[in-house]
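cron nightly-structures :: item 1 of 1
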Amino acid sequence: MIARYTRPVMGKIWNDQNKFSVWLQIEILACEAQAELGVIPKEAVAVIREKAKFDIARIDAIELEVKHDVIAFLTNVGEYVGPESRYIHLGMTSSDVLDTALAVQMKQSGELLLKGLEELKEVLARRAKEFKMTVMIGRSHGIHAEPTTFGLKLALWYDETRRNIQRLIRAIETISYGQISGAVGTFEHLSPKVEEYVCAKLGLKPAPVSTQILQRDRHAEFMTTLAVVGSSLEKFATEIRHLQKTEVLEAEEYFSKGQKGSSAMPHKRNPITCERIAGLSRVLRGNAQAAMENVALWHERDITHSSVERIIVPDSCILLDYMLALTKNVIEKLIVYPENMRNNIDLTHGLVFSQPVLLALTTKGMKREDAYRIVQKNAMDVWQSKKNFREVLEDDAEVNRLLTKSELQEAFDPTKSLRHVDYIFERVGLGS
């Protein structure tokens, strides 16, 4: 199911072929830098660049014996290179390769996720404009409050998606650091210029200070950012699920020809995609929690973080890529029912206009406390009797004393809720 939506590129970023390719690139670049510094012969670098290869199956076989992935990799590369392989990994430690490569992969993934967010933002912008003036009831605590528009709801999501884009840009910047600093980060056996050279070639910055590893607060920031994005997607999906309830039915997921909603009840049209998005967001938050647990390590390094992030980082990147594709598809094909939205406004027989009536009375000189008491008394009556709220108010002597029928009718005009919609759209960047 995930493969159906995930960009093939995202999966490839995290496969062994790409991982080992980045490892090899780092090792060759380090050799180039060492040669520029006169530490190793330039002729050896030419041989290394020409002959260096790897075979994943062979690496796996070696690792079964040595129980160390980087050593297995270097052993296999050395089998291709020959004697000049003695210059590979000179003065380096495993984490110089592992952490710098992980930064490259996270940067690649982050940039792909940015594209997904941009695509979602564009879909939200288009549909927000489409339903800009489509009146619906706004709800607080799940209870009818006052009229709003479906376009404003989508504009809100658009604005949140813009913030998520900025969050992810910052998180990519935070993670785009490498290190080639040796066993405890002191550059004892190689020059800092090697690190500078390798990082520049990879599109990274050198970490200002490291130990044997890049510090895991960087990774935690990236992972929590993915979790925040996922939480936003869950928020959008949860709202759609509420709007798709049978009693509401103001919007619903597209239901394709031949799709089945239930094995037992043929009539069902369930919001399964939004439920999937909501459920998967929990995995992202769980992974973010694990990333924060990885921040505290012993001294210059232990490896309690290593096994964790080999699971959580690829999984979260692939998962969010999938969720973004799902969400974009849901919003793009979302079925909207403006008539149901208008009918639902009338469900409470006009009660949603209680505040305009309250304000009209206070404008005419009535104390707010008195006005509130009068409007609430009549509103509570309507809750029980199901009478028309405006008609009940027209029969109230205290209301009649201050408001004419036309003034009262004006308080029940839903279009007054729309007079600042254009302004809000302009402010959020969705003006025409």
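cron nightly-structures :: done
The CA atoms of residues 39 and 308 lie 37 Å apart.
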